[in-house]
Amino acid sequence: MADPFSSSSEDVIQRVIDVPQITASALDKLEELYQISETCDFITEGHFGKVALQFPDHLLVDSVAIAAKIEKSTKAKAYILGDTSYGSCCVDEVAAEHVEADCMVHYGNSCLSPSKRLPLMYVFEKRPIDVEKCVSAFRELYTDSQSHVILLYDVNYVHALGDLRTVLLPDYPNLSISDLVCEGELCQSHDYIKRKEDSTSDTPLVYQFGRQFSLKSGLSIKDYSIFYIGQEGATLTNFMMTWNRSTFCSFDPSTGTGRTESVKINRALMKRYYAIERAKDAAVVGILVGTLGVADYLSIIPQLKEAIHKAGKKCYMFAMGKLNVPKLANFLEIDIFVLIACPENSLLDSSEFYKPVVTPYEMEVACNPGREWSEDYITDFRHLLPGGQSHVPLAELQEYREADVSLISGDLRRQCLDSEQGQTSGSSSLVLRNQTMTVATNNNAASFLAGRSWQGLEQKLGETPVVKAVEGRRGIAIAYEEEGTS
Predict the structure, then answer these.
(1) Cα–Cα distance, 128 to 197 (Å, whole number)
(2) How far apart are CA 68 and CA 440, in angstroms?
(3) How many Å apart are CA 412 and CA 280, to the nearest integer?
């Protein structure tokens, strides 16, 4: 009898999937889209024996053909990395090290976060774009040829940059077109990615999120409007949150239309500020390590721990892959989570989660009185580190003894100092040991667990009376046989 709620396991094991044979024309198309010859040159010139090929899920269909072509053209052994532990935009160097790879090739969309372990090559998707429609939308949005505009774009449209530069620059002398850049000598993408440069003239250079562009002398980025080429998504949201004092216009190549972005970013900032207030009220904080590949991710963890500890809060650290509601719902003791990830994955919409998820910058605003909420929103945690452009030293203890009022609950909120913590956590008083807690302390996960009505499976040896076996329920969970009867 067939089970209506599941398929037969035997059928699943014996099922055969037809994989179409790749023709010569299709292989030539893959050669162009995935830059296979350039990739082989990168592998051959570096004398790499093992290469890890990282694909996003929607490109895995072409992965086998690409890996076979690379192995045929080089002496290297290719390993396909699929289902990355974290965001597919980040380089998964940890998975590459599992196969002892000598280099990596990252395909598809990328946040261009710096990585420092393995030689790396980026291969972007060459998504189609109508340059004429893009130029027409640009001219409609910026009728004044003297407008100060910065042109940003999704990395998958970098191949059209040359045509746009040729058409727009003669008519718009104040147009600044960004370049894709990378730090260090390990990153390559041939003509598409340049090396990071320092400004040697009076023209200031802005470097952020793997983009570099110049500004006119005496002007700042808030004096510019920003024109973005790409679909609405994490990349555009990240740009709008960071440069929120600039007006944004965008062109969507998939629809061929341009528009002025609305003021919804102000509502997003207010939601982020509400999350900061929740962080100030929180007593227990969970630090989510959402990346193992972005440079300096290990440096921000102790800095966050120190700020949380000096604010009188407890913290616990979790190494977790792709986040979802059921995963975080397992930790009811945590009042708020702080996510350490790349800039594009940090701005997580936590409206469906039971507890808010904030960024390291927002947690610092909540815990470090020396850092104030301002229009300069920071999504890259590396800027918060010592030596970073937005680093603020942790305020001294005597600087924040004053009380504070929660804007959410209306209760009085007082920062707890290290010395005050020491009077409780450093106490030598004896406490009763039980099965729930080894040592009872205030405002931590152990006391929270003790107050639960259900604390998980417990043995309770000798406490459960011995009874005869009784007949249990019959049927399925949605309709037991005895239900509906008296």
Answers:
(1) 30
(2) 60
(3) 11
SS3 148: coil
For the chain, how far is it from start to end, CA to CA, in angstroms? 32
The residue type at 409 = S
Q: What is the pLDDT of residue 17?
A: 52
Helix/strand/coil percentages in the chain, nearest 5: 35, 20, 50
Yes or no: say if 165 and 177 are a contact pair by the CB < 8 Å rule.
yes
Q: Answer for the pair 263, 291: CB distance below 8 angstroms, yes or no.
A: no
Q: Which uninterrupted H or E stretch holds 368?
A: none
**All residues at 6 or more sequence positions from 442 whose CB lies less than 8 Å from its CB, including other chains:** 424
Q: Per residue in 392-442, pLDDT tens? A: 888 765 444 456 767 677 676 655 544 444 444 444 455 555 555 554 445
Cβ atoms 439, 431 nearer than 8 A: yes
CA 2 to CA 386: how far, in whole Å?
63
Q: What is the pTM of this model?
A: 0.77
**Chain centroid, CA 314 distance in Å:** 24
